[in-house]
Amino acid sequence: MIQFSSFFQDFIHIFFPKICLACGDELFSHEDILCPSCLYHLPLTDFHLDKENETARQLWGKLDCQDAISMLYLAKSSRVEQLIHKLKYDNHPEIGVFLGEYYGKILQNTAVLDTVDIIMPIPLHKSKLRKRGYNQSSQFAKGLSKAGDIPWTDDTLIRTVATVSQTSKSRTERYENVEDVFALKSADTVRGKHILLVDDVLTTGATICSAGNLLIEAGATVSVATIARA
Hints:
The chain has 9 helices and 6 strands, in the order H-H-H-E-H-H-E-H-H-E-H-E-E-H-E. The chain has 2 domains: about 1-40, no CATH class; about 40-230, Rossmann fold (3-Layer(aba) Sandwich). It is about 40% helix and about 15% strand.
């Protein structure tokens, strides 16, 4: 039976080959999402090894978080940019889950996840969620949850305002754009809990700070993890 299953998978692969979602090269039947070369060359930050890393320093004075880390460096026209674009705009939620699991396995050997009670993604507004079909940050949260055996939820922190894109805005405008756009269904859910707040890309930190400070006001301890840092 196992031999037949392997044969069938190889047969399917001939007619419907999988490709690396970073570089476009064809994958072997046992490979998934990334080819070995792209996986090997992922620009990992190793921020989890340094409490005073670049992401943490960027949030100093804006968000009182326990830990703040980013998995990857993001550069123009890079493999990471390709992955993030496909995750957000090309209907590839599996990229987020894959990266979450990959990062979660790295973090298993550190103290970052030791006291985390809940993993919580930055939410999308319901109008954008309907249009995209999924929240890319939720996919990352799923992968982290699976690797770290930590529960995750995307129905506690909600986005109440459909903000316009942050892309063309200045640093100050980005903070103003996300001011008071989040709410909690129940503060009791997070009070006394250590929340790992996750997002796809850290740019100015405006969105993370807005959501994180709301959680802290409700009595939670907050740590931050993002897929990439711009």
